[in-house]
Specification:
By secondary structure, the chain is an alpha/beta fold. The chain has a single domain, classed as Protein of unknown function UPF0759 (TIM Barrel, Alpha-Beta Barrel), CATH 3.20.20.410. The chain is built from eleven helices and nine strands. It has a six-stranded parallel beta sheet. β5, α6 and β6 (about 160) form a beta-alpha-beta unit. α7 packs across α9. The model has no long low-confidence stretch (mean pLDDT about 95).
Length: about 270
């Protein structure tokens, strides 16, 4: 199984010091990040659909083997509850296609108020409008979704049901596509000012998720694992805990990032 690990977003000023070198600016962040991790979940697309030129810049700032997983806009998932037309979906996905071969699975994150009882038909209609040439993962945040009818709907359309470590729902480790999409999300108990250091011990939970993925190694060829800062306080470190639990080499950012900086910036590190 090929496992890609990364973070939910890269543009965190609080990472300057613990992850990015002193002196790094937001313009440097993605290029530096991609020296360490080979995939990232794009959190910013939830808030705003980026311009074509922005997407191209992301693509050109990263190595050839890098993959982006954009998150569907909240306008579609939260405000409209997936009750949208094809044009609105296309308006988001068309700019994402400029990522080319670097476009990974696209995440559809649903709010807890979207339940099976009030939205299953809407979900089915939404799925019908999704293109076949892009991979999708759907994260449910209400336990009512976890039933065979939903699993079959996702499986027949080759859409992954995201495995998510969140307090509002307990997602079963069901496989509905040819890849696993795990999100270590957590809650909102850690203030963003504390991002950059581990604040909560979730090692036991991370080990359990790693064991779940190991148990699927004979069934699935690819897995994507993303950690949010809210999960423990510092998602790069969380990723390393997961990698260690999987028996993978831990990501090492001090040497890699330092070696990628100009000489005048290395002295700041």
């Amino acid at each position: 199984m090929k496992i890609r690990t990364g973070c939910s977003g890269w543009s965190y000023s609080s990472w300057v010091g613990p992850f990015y070198p002193d002196g790094a600016t937001p313009a440097d962040f993605l290029k530096l990040y991609s020296k360490v991790f080979h995939t990232v979940e794009i959190d910013s697309t939830y808030y705003k659909v980026p311009e074509k030129n922005t997407v191209i810049k992301w693509r050109d700032s990263t190595p050839d083997n890098f993959l982006f997983s954009p998150k569907f806009p909240g306008e579609i998932t939260h405000k409209r509850g997936l009750d949208v037309d094809h044009n609105m979906i296309s308006d988001f996905l068309e700019p994402m296609k400029f990522l080319g071969k670097k476009l990974g699975p696209v995440l559809v994150q649903l709010p807890a108020v979207i339940t099976y009882n009030n939205s299953f038909d809407t979900l089915r209609n939404f799925i019908k409008m999704l293109p076949d040439d892009i991979r999708f993962a759907i994260e449910f945040r209400d336990n009512s979704w976890f039933r065979e009818e939903v699993f079959r709907q996702l499986e027949s359309n080759k859409i992954a049901m995201a495995w998510s470590d969140i307090p509002v729902a307990k997602s079963p480790t069901i496989i509905t596509s040819d890849f696993i999409y795990l999100r270590l999300v957590g809650d909102r108990s850690i203030d963003s000012s504390d991002f950059g250091k581990l604040k909560i011990d979730r090692q036991g939970d991370i080990i359990k998720w790693a064991e779940e993925i190991k148990s699927k190694e004979d069934e699935i060829e690819n897995a994507f694992v993303f950690s949010n800062n809210h999960y423990q306080g510092f998602s790069p470190a969380t990723v390393n805990i997961f990698r260690k639990a999987m028996g993978m080499v831990e990501a090492e950012w001090t040497t890699l990032i330092k070696s990628s900086l100009p000489e005048n910036q290395k002295r700041l590190f």
